[in-house]
Amino acid sequence: MSEIIKTEAIVLRKINFGDSSRIALFYSKDFGKISGIIKGARSSKSKIGSMVDTINLLQLVLYKKDAREVQLISEVDLIKHFSHIKDDYQKLKYATAIIELLTTMTSENEHNIKLFDGTVRILTLLDSSDENPQLLFVKYFFFFLKEIGYEFQIEHCNVCGKKIQLGDQASYNYETGLICAECRADRLTNFNFTEELFELLICLNSKRNNIKYSEKDLDLIMIMLEKFLMYQLHEFKGLKAFNLN
Ligand SMILES: [Zn+2]
Questions:
Q1: CA 82 – CA 88 distance, rounded (Å)
Q2: Which pLDDT belongs to residue 207?
Q3: Please, where are the H alpha helices in 55-214?
Q4: Helix (H, G, I), strand (E, B) or coil at 25
Q5: What is the chain's alpha carbon radius of gyration, rounded to the nearest angstrom?
Q6: What local confidence, expressed as pLDDT, does residue 244 receive?
Q7: 160 CA to middle of ligand 1, Å?
Q8: Spacing, Cα 177 to ligand 1 middle (Å)
Q9: Rounded to the nearest whole angstrom, what is the distance from the C-alpha of residue 182 to the centroid of ligand 1?
Q10: 188-226 per-position pLDDT tens digit
Q11: Where is 49: in which H helix or E strand?
Q12: Which pLDDT score, from 0 to 100, does residue 132 have?
């Protein structure tokens, strides 16, 4: 039995298939990551071929069969194509990293509406606002980690559980995460936070706008998050989007 389903989806990847079809990997609102085939997508009469392009937000109608690995897509409508992202190298780099996180770190058929909505929101901001693309990405990275179950927590020492507040000495160890001054004494640390860096970490995890930051601190936090994920998940080898420079 197959059901006819309508869902919104972000295109993660596309490949040509046969003479005229296209297969794509999507992150969908209702089913998480799914693959689908669009027959005839590349024929000259079809507008669908250009819609099914990486990063685009689409509305899909599909015949969903749980036993099938690749779903049959019968209708495609374009909701957003994020043209400013595609015109701007910096924006594109961070959007590509977002697509990469969804592709490599989420499971097929595991939906998470909050993650889907948060991703659409960040892509929309990347596309239409003047905010620093790296700042937007780092905020998204914290949100993403939390949504996939690897929250990078910054309130308590990860060893003794003591609350760490702004102004306290805080350090970081890739294995344990954030640690307090006392626990720092008997273990190796990768680095100690300056007050500015720790404040930035807190701001990035709040809903605050107008965040003050230096590029250097933002770079440092991004590296820390990437390494944090590598430690949590050994199959994660870092984001390729950043190694293309
Ligand atoms: Zn401690």
A1: 11
A2: 81
A3: 83-87, 89-105, 113-128, 133-147, 181-184, 195-204
A4: strand
A5: 20
A6: 57
A7: 4
A8: 11
A9: 6
A10: 777 788 888 888 998 898 888 788 899 999 999 998 899
A11: helix 48-51
A12: 94
What does the alpha-carbon distance between residue 192 and residue 190 come to, in Å, rounded to a whole number?
A: 7
Ligand 1 centroid from CA 161, angstroms? 6
Summarize pLDDT for 22-39 with one digit per residue, the tens: 999 999 999 999 999 999
Asked whether the beta carbons of 84 and 8 are under 8 A apart, the reply is: no
CA–centroid distance, 181 to ligand 1, in Å, is 7
* Pick from 64, 4, 78, 76: nearest CA to 34: 64
| Comparison of pLDDT for 116 and 68, the residue scoring more | 116
CA 156 to centroid of ligand 1, rounded, Å? 8
163: CA distance to ligand 1 center in Å?
A: 8
Rounded to the nearest whole angstrom, what is the distance from the C-alpha of residue 141 to the centroid of ligand 1?
25
Q: Map out the domains of the chain with their CATH numbers.
A: 3-82 (2.40.50.140), 130-242 (no CATH)
Q: Give 121's pLDDT tier (boundaries 50, 70, 90).
A: very high
Place of tokens 């309130």: 155
pLDDT digits (tens, 9 = 90+) for 165-183: 888 888 988 888 889 988 8
Cβ within 8 Å of residue 205, ≥6 positions away = 142, 154
Q: How far, in Å, from the CA of 89 to the mean position of ligand 1?
A: 42
Q: Which tokens go with 63?
A: 């015949």
- d(CA 168, CA 178) in angstroms, rounded, equals 12
Question: How many A from CA of 212 to the centre of ligand 1?
Answer: 28
Q: How far is the CA of 170 from the centre of ligand 1 (A)?
A: 9
Q: How close is the Cα of 51 to the center of ligand 1, in Å?
A: 51
Please tell me the pTM assigned to this model: 0.92
